[in-house]
């Protein structure tokens, strides 16, 4: 049997130093957490010290023993003799931060071991290999994110941020962020940033077209793209991209017998150019948030993915008390992915009509209310509006409504949805 994953001497020593030397306590409480300690007794001692610290009380051997007596935990914590022995042999030169890092590294090993044990149980259970892999990826990411809580002073933060601002001032790029594929939208937003953005629309109003167009624009600008296509199969998605690249009507990809030889040869030529774009596609059914996160992290590592598109959010598979609870879990996972990975995550969302009889009802943030916390979790919300006339034909006075923008203005952007090419184009108001 392998040795237990814990460092008994280190745990005892660091508790003893915090008890013996008041000057060491700020560093100790800054980094000490329950999971760093393997034994239940040591965790109880830590919690007693944390309670005392929270009350602003002096922390020493007597105070901790008294606290444990009052909570009826002295025996469970090892007894008075054990706690007294912790303070023996401590020296003031002990580096608390360094030894906390040592304990943190061992805690990470324990977490990984527990994850692998759970994964092995799942392998022999009813879960698929993909589900097991996704759970391992998720657990590894959790361990990585929990290996240290970094707190920096403004003094540490200011110079790197000033350097970033200076670089952005001097850049020759047309768009500071990742291009959306629509110049007027880029002008107002500066492109996709490392945020969670929603693209909402009523059914049949161009959500998927927007996602495909934006993904192609990002890839053409040199940014590797991951598309999680929960609605459309990869073959359909590829034909959409071929249509955009070749500028042939999507109808001809739906019915290739309408292509003449010249057009087909042109498609073959365009397909070669399309193959060079860094676009990665997953069309697996019923992905859950954990699988989405794991897949994204995998391709960030493998291919340097810089932006993730999800089409569309209501199809993400998750369990919950009700539909709102499910959406809350999904949106929280996507927002967390964007923040932790430092990349834009863009998800399409279907809107619900407050008045189903009015086909020209202008979409607002209100139409996201029924979908849980999507509105508040998203940093940016873009709503696609395509009005119709009395004959229910589209008027062409289409808009992308910036309903929410974390660091910018809101309002409509005038566009035209070209139904022949399934693409949003600029529209002049003149």
TrEMBL record:
Protein name: DNA 5'-3' helicase
InterPro entries (alphabetical): DNA_heli_DnaB-like_N_sf, DNA_helicase_DnaB-like_C, DNA_helicase_DnaB-like_N, DNA_helicase_N/primase_C, P-loop_NTPase
Any Pfam family: DnaB_C
SUPFAM superfamilies: N-terminal domain of DnaB helicase, P-loop containing nucleoside triphosphate hydrolases
Top EC class, one word: isomerase
Gene Ontology annotations of biological process type: DNA replication, synthesis of primer
SF4 helicase domain: residues covered: 171-430
The keyword Nucleotide-binding is assigned to this record: yes
Domain of life (superkingdom): Bacteria
Source lineage: Bacteria, Pseudomonadati, Acidobacteriota, Terriglobia, Terriglobales
Annotated GO MF terms: 5'-3' DNA helicase activity; ATP binding; DNA binding; hydrolase activity
The species this protein was found in: Acidisarcina polymorpha
GO cellular component: cytosol; primosome complex
Family membership: Belongs to the helicase family. DnaB subfamily.
Keywords: ATP-binding, DNA replication, DNA-binding, Helicase, Hydrolase, Isomerase, Nucleotide-binding, Primosome
